[in-house]
Amino acid sequence: MTATARREFGAGPLSRVAALVYTLLVVEVLLLLCAAPGLLALLALERHVSNLPLVAVCAVPLGPALSAAVYALHHQRLDLTELHPARLFRRGYRVNLRGALLVWVPLLLWLTVIAVNLVNLPVAGVPGWWAVPLVLVGAGAAVVGTNALVITSLFAFRPRDVARLAGYFVLRTPVVAAGTAGLLVAAALLTLVASEAALAALGSVLVLALVRGAEPMITAIRTEFTS
Q1: Helix crossing, 159-172 with 131-154: angle to 10°?
Q2: What are the pLDDT digits (tens) for 190-212?
Q3: Contact present, 180 and 210 (Cβ < 8 Å)
Q4: Is 165 in contact with 151 (CB distance < 8 Å)?
Q5: CA–CA separation, 124 vs 34, rounded Å?
Q6: Most buried pick, 40, 120, 160, 221, via CB within 10 A?
């Protein structure tokens, strides 16, 4: 089979759909495997506010796994003759492990502090309206942190530059920020209505939606901040 024929074979609509399904399945399996230690412990935890710090600890392995999934889904081309999602995932995990943890762990710590304060407002005797600014701060941190995870997954910037770009592009690309916020809300609702297992089962689909929604930010960073 000639190179032209191979390209034609892998470039049709059905081939692209098949390639996408295959890529999502492979990335989903690898995502779950890498996050499995924390996810299994999380499923064993009782749903009680006193366990919030333990939930954060269980979520630590998820950060590098999400980063690797972002890397794989962004770089994979939907051509049946050139499918390497597992290879891309492994490379993304290896290259981005340190950067992902530097973004993910502080984000988890910050969100845990906010969550603990929220659930303890009545005990502390703080007025109920304080919940509003706390929720807004938490939502803003989650969106900026997600931006930072995408950036550090795809670009080799210093951690402080990643943080600056993540905050800058919340204002620069509000559509991306709104899309990210919508995904986070959907993930939270799915967890509350169903379970953490249901959220984990849709992990690769949510990451794909995140990558596609972040394309304006990714393109702008590549054009303006890389040589």
Answers
A1: 120
A2: 888 877 778 888 999 999 999 99
A3: yes
A4: yes
A5: 39
A6: 221
CA dihedral 195, 199, 202, 203 (to 10 degrees): -150
Residue 63 has which token pair? 């950060």
Q: How many CB atoms lie within 10 A of CB 97?
A: 14
- CA distances 46 to 42, 55, 112, 117, 196, Å, are 8, 10, 17, 19, 12
C-alpha span between 226 and 67 (Å, rounded):
20
Q: CA torsion 160→158→204→80, rounded to 10°?
A: 150
CA distance 50 to 167: 31
**What does the pLDDT look like over 112-151, one tens digit per residue?**
999 998 888 877 667 777 889 999 999 999 999 999 999 9
Contact predicate 38/59, CB 8 Å: yes
Torsion, Cα of 217, 89, 20, 183 (10° steps): -50
| Residues sharing a CB contact under 8 Å with residue 10, sequence separation 6 or more, in sequence order | 19, 79, 80, 81, 82
Domain edges within the chain: 3-225
Q: What residue type is 98 in one-letter code? A: R
The answer to whether the beta carbons of residues 27 and 55 sit under 8 Å apart is no
What is the Cα–Cα distance from 99 to 149, expressed in whole angstroms?
8
First to last CA, the chain: 38
pTM: 0.90
